[in-house]
Amino acid sequence: MWIILLAIPFILFGLVAFVGAPYVPSHRKYVREAFAKLYKLSDKDLVVDLGSGDGVVMRVAREFDAKCVGYELNLLLAFISKVLARGDKGQKVVVGDMWTAKLPEDVTLFYAFSVSRDVNKLMDRVQRYADTSERTVKLMTYGPVLKLKKPSRTQGAHSLYVFVPKTLQSRQA
Ligand SMILES: C[S@@+](CC[C@H](N)C(=O)[O-])C[C@H]1O[C@@H](n2cnc3c(N)ncnc32)[C@H](O)[C@@H]1O
Questions:
Q1: Ligand 1 neighbourhood includes 112 CB (under 6 angstroms)
Q2: Pocket of ligand 1 contains residue 165 by CB under 6 Å
Q3: Among 5, 79, 118, 155, which residue's Cβ finds the most Cβ atoms within 10 Å?
Q4: What CATH code is carried by the domain that includes residue 119?
Q5: pTM over 0.85
């Protein structure tokens, strides 16, 4: 019985590493600084955290009155995130795969603390979102930077990228 109980977290945390970054939380102080200076977050924003862990990024985003949705594959982390949200209706955690989940329509900022292996996939995911919604969206990364796109700004380990939809790119050219 104990072996099964001990194996559950191991399975929950271990299996995720095959489909995305393992759990390591962003540093709250640096997220706060990034939302204050790198991208000035406000109540007009909807932030999507792709792989939201214990929800620390969403809780910081709420300090700026932005709405947030987090996608998290690990049930235990999603549960902790819900508990720590303390019933705050401005943040929501969805248990699901961030690569395939249906995203809200009005996202303004994506946040990702990813791994180098996944950065091209991440870039495609956000570009596809910009293309289908026909809106410019931004991506803030923490840690690994995109290999095929230059950030518009950086601050410490945070980088900010702008994704212009293909329809607007051709008009601007
Ligand atoms: C490096 S942690 C970052 C957590 C949080 N975003 C933060 O910055 O504190 C990455 C998180 O992504 C989750 N994750 C990895 N692959 C995922 C996937 N395909 N779909 C949803 N969540 C995923 C992991 O369980 C982990 O909690």
A1: no
A2: no
A3: 118
A4: 3.40.50.150
A5: yes
